[in-house]
Amino acid sequence: MLIDVHAHVTPTKTVARANGSTYPTPEELLAKLDAAEIDRAVLLPQASPECGDRRVSTEEVLEICARYPGRFIPFCNLDPRMVSNSPDADFMPLIEYYKNAGCKGVGELTANLAFDDPLVLNLLGQCEAAGMPILFHMGPRFGGCYGLVDDLGLPRLEGVLQRFPNLTIMGHSQPFWSEISSDVTAETRNTYAPGKVTPGRVPELLRKYHNLHGDLSGGSGFNAVSRDPEFGYQFLETFQDKLLFGTDVWAPHNETPLVGFLRDAAGQGKITQEAFEKISWRNADRILGLGLGD
Predict the structure, then answer these.
(1) Which string of DSSP letters, residue by residue, matches the chain?
(2) What domains appear along the chain, each with residue ranges and CATH number?
(3) pLDDT of amino acid 17
(4) 55 pLDDT band (50/70/90 cuts)?
């Protein structure tokens, strides 16, 4: 089984991005999943204005999931500036409503605010209280991009991990995964850096904090484990309880190279079958409470 923890969808085609692409429709996404033999995918709504021209509401995601039972898993998404744009905004009615509607987590959080911004801390604290995992995109800077912002070395993320020990956090994007290696710089943190890995902050934080997990989706996650394959296999094996398979399909033309990499790694004995199963679906099943392994 494969469960994709990171996919996007649009109910209708609208204005294209500058490169001519759009989010896939449900039918286009299902075709991608079927071609890669992926059983289910988490659908992440798009709530923040920084992240593209097309917002996708939680309500739209829930409707799509209802149309294709057994294939899609809904998340809700909330921007920290919603409700009242204040650090005491009450998100609990929204969180509880979406949780009762079937949403299994909150994300992808893409607001271009600092991890330790009072608005962000307020939302994260209420997600923790509600028992809702969160999935974030990390941005490289303030302005001109999207995603929660941290400095080199991820000190703000570490502060969040300490402050909310019962909040399950899934990390994603280039600035997050570039910290798999200690040689990351301000110039390389938003790229797909090549070459050998010298273990950096991401392995350190995964080892130190039980509530941090790695979303392997997109070019960033794939690059992190494939740029130095021998390190990557060891990393997958060591952190088999903390890593989650994903694709980050955001357009119909996207490739899904992590599928083949993981299957080849297991087939060639580079990682154990146990590690493969945990990363490919068992961790998602456990963290999101899907009940598939019961």
Answers:
(1) --EEEEE---SS--SPPTTS--PPPHHHHHHHHHHHT--EEEE--B--TTS-S--B-HHHHHHHHHHSTTTEEE-B---TTSTTSSTT---HHHHHHHHHTT---EEEE--SSBTT-HHHHHHHHHHHHHT--EEE-EESSSSSS-SEE--TT-HHHHHHHHH-TT--EEE-SHHHHGGGBTT--TTTTTS---S---B-HHHHHHHH-TTEEEE--HHHHHHHHHSSHHHHHHHHHHTTTTEE----B-STT---HHHHHHHHHHHTTSS-HHHHHIIIIIHHHHHHT--TT-
(2) 3-288 (3.20.20.140)
(3) 79
(4) confident
Give residue 184's pLDDT band: very low, low, confident or very high (50, 70, 90): very high
Provide the 3-class DSSP secondary structure of residue 85.
coil
Q: What is the pLDDT of residues 118-141, one digit of tens each?
A: 999 999 999 999 999 999 999 999
**DSSP string computed for 123-158:** HHHHHHHHT--EEE-EESSSSSS-SEE--TT-HHHH
Asked, as a colleague might, if the bond just before 255 is cis with ω within 30 of 0, I would say: no
Residue carrying the six token digits 């060591």: 238
Measure Cα distances from 139 to 126, 142, 199 in Å: 22, 8, 21
Predicted confidence (pLDDT) at residue 216 exceeds the cutoff of 90: yes
Q: Tell me, what amino acid is at 86?
A: S
Give yes or no for a contact between 126 and 92, defined as CB atoms under 8 angstroms apart: yes
Over residues 178-194, the mean pLDDT reads: 95
